[in-house]
Write a structure and sequence with these properties.
Layout (H helix, E strand, L loop, with lengths): L1 H27 L5 E5 L2 E4 H18 L6 H24 L6 H14 L4 H10 L4 H21 L8 H11 L7 E11 L6 H19 L4 H8 L10 E6 L23 E3 L2 E12 L5 E12 L7 H16 L4 H8 L3 H4 L4 E5 L6 H9 L5 E7 L2 E14 L1 H32 L2 E3 L11 H5 L1
InterPro entries: OMP_Chaperone_SurA, PPIase_dom_sf, PPIase_PpiC, PPIase_PpiC_CS, PPIase_SurA, SurA_N, Trigger_fact/SurA_dom_sf
Protein name: Chaperone SurA
Keywords: Chaperone, Isomerase, Periplasm, Repeat, Rotamase, Signal
Length: 447
Amino acid sequence: MKATLRHGLTLLLTMAMLAVSVSAHAERQVLDRVVAIVDDDVILQTELDARVNTIVGRLSAQGTGLPPRQLLEERVLEQLISESLQLQMADQMGMRISDNELNETLANIARSNGLSLEQFEEQLAEEGVTYQQAREQIRNEMLSGRVQQRRVGNRVRITDREVENYLQAQAGRGPDAEEYRLAYIFIQVDDPGNEDSVEQARAKAENLRQQIIDGRDFREVAVAESDAGNALEGGDMGWRTESQLPSLVAPVVPNMEVGVPSEVLENNSGFHLVTVMDKRGGEEVTVIQQHRVRHILIRPSQAVTETQAENRIRDIYQQLQDGANFAALARELSDDPVSGSDGGNLGWVSPGQMVPAFEQAMMEAEVGEIYGPVRSQFGWHILQVEERRQQDVTAENRESQARQAIYQRKFETELQNWLREIRDEAFVEFKGDYADLNPASEENNAS
C-alpha cells in the first residue's frame, strides 16, 4: 500500500514537473492554433501570420501605407478562407498540379523577370519567403485559377453584337497612343435590391474618394477597404492599352491626370474608383507574327485523374517521337473534338488568342518540333508549329482585343458573384482572438 502510494506521489510529482516544463516552454514559444474552421479544412495562426507578413513586406517595399494590423489580419483571413474553399473544390474535382508542371511554371516566372532560378530564390529570400513556400503558394494559385475557369468561365457568354458595339465605341479615338497603369477600388452593395444598402455603399465610396483627394494613399485605401479580388495588391490592375480598358472606366481614363481618383462610378455590382498610377507612350501593333499550329489535348475529368491524363499525354508524345502520324493520333485521341476531327489543326493563331501556358509554348517551339507536354487550364497539350508568318491583322487584332476585354470584364463580375456565393454557402467558424467575427447567434440577436 505504501509502495503504491509512493508510486502515485512520484507519478503526480512527475506530471507536475512536466506541466511546469510545458508551461515554461509555452511562454517561450507560442503554440500554433486554429483561427478558423472552413468546411473540412482549418486555417492556422502560422498561415495567417506568414501571409500577413508577406503582404506587409510587399506593400512596405512599394511605399504603400498600411491599415491597422487587426484590420489587415481580418482581410487576409477572409482571403485565406476564399482560397481554402477553392482548394477544397479542386481536391473534390480531382485537380492536381504535377511537380514537372510546377517546375516549368516557376522557371517561366523567373525567366519573365529576367532571373535565373537561383537568383529568383535569392530574391524570395530577401522578401522573407522560402522557395518551398513560394512553390506551394504558386501551386495553390494555379489550382484556384483552374477551379475559377471551370466554375466561372462557363458563365461568360460574348455575342458578336457586343463585340461590334465595343468596336464602335472605340472608333474615332484613333490608335492606342498610350498605356495606363491603373489601380482600382470596388465597394460592393450587400443587397442590391435594398435602397438603403445601395446608398450606404455609395456614401462609403464618396467618403473614400474624398479621403484620397485629402492625401490618403489610393493603394492603402484599396488594401483596407476595397472588395475587389486584387485589394491586397493595392488594387493594382497592371498596364492596359485603351482598347483593353474595362468598359466602365474606358470613357474616363484617357482624360484623367496621374494620381487623381476618378469620380465614383456605378454599375449593377456596386461602386468603383479608379486612378491612373502612370502613363507611357505606345504604338498600335498592326503587323504581328502568326503561328500555324496543331495540337493534341488530353483533358482530366471525373473519369480521368490528373496523373492518368499526364501519363497518357506523355505516352502520345513518345509515339510521335517514334514516328507516329500527328494528324491520325489527334483524330483518334484528342479531347478537343473540333480540332481533333481536323487532325489537331488550330489554323493561324495570333498573339493573345490562346491561354498563356499554350501561347508561351507556341512561342518557344521551333517550326516542325513536337513540343510538350504542356499543361494549361484546359488540360495537357502536345503541339507542333507548322509555319510562322508576319501578317497585317489590324482588324482581326482589334476584334480579338475587344473579345478579351469584354470577357475579362464579364469574368471579373461573375467571379465576384461566385466567390460571394461559395462564401455564403460555406461553414466558417472563427476561433480564439477572431471569435467575435462569428455572426451573432439568434439568442444574442433576440437580446
